Amino acid sequence: MHVFYLHGFASSPQSSKAEFLSAKLADLGKTLHCPDFNQPDFSTLTISRMLQQLEKRIVALVPDEVALIGSSLGGFVAIEAAQRQVARAYHPITKLVLLAPAIELEWERWPEVGPGGIEGWRRNGEIEVFHYADDRPRRLKFAFYEDAVRYKPAAARLAVPMVIFQGRRDESVDPRSVERFAQAQPDATLHLVDDEHQLKNSLDSIWSETSRFLSLSPACPP
Fold this sequence. Notes:
By secondary structure, the chain is α/β, with parallel strands linked by helices. Helix content is 32%, strand content 20%. The longest helix is centred in the first third of the chain and has 13 residues, at 47-59. It is globular.
């Protein structure tokens, strides 16, 4: 099984969760694939580009099942990728692990949108957002919004087994939307934890459940 980590908005493959999971998988002799969705330029980021980058990385691997671990906006992308199943014949997406998934992009929770709202963003053509991986402000074009509203992951109904971790004190993703999504899925297990959006205090329990869910075991010696 190929395991992918899909980082969140204004994050990177060097995030604390990505590095934590990568180290855990390395201990088992396995690789965590982490596309960098900031490339080629953060300002031109769109959901469609993220999906294309992910699917290109998947099809470049030898045929096998694929598990997606999606964090925040990466969870949004994971759901959409599982619906599309572009490479189903040789690389079926068979399991999802969603970490505080941005099931709905709640624009009113975006402080970067500012007092001008979506119309202000449209008029200006871009907004300034703080990029956590770069530790500095970056520009984001309005094309991100125009593309994102085409997708409706909250309405998805997936036969793919999934496990979801959501913090009760999440300030970015409404836990109620995640609960509704989980309840509507035929094969989803939701873990509500006493944590915030980053889930930093829950990483050990997340790994314990994830390794069991993905049936991960140490690599056999040569």
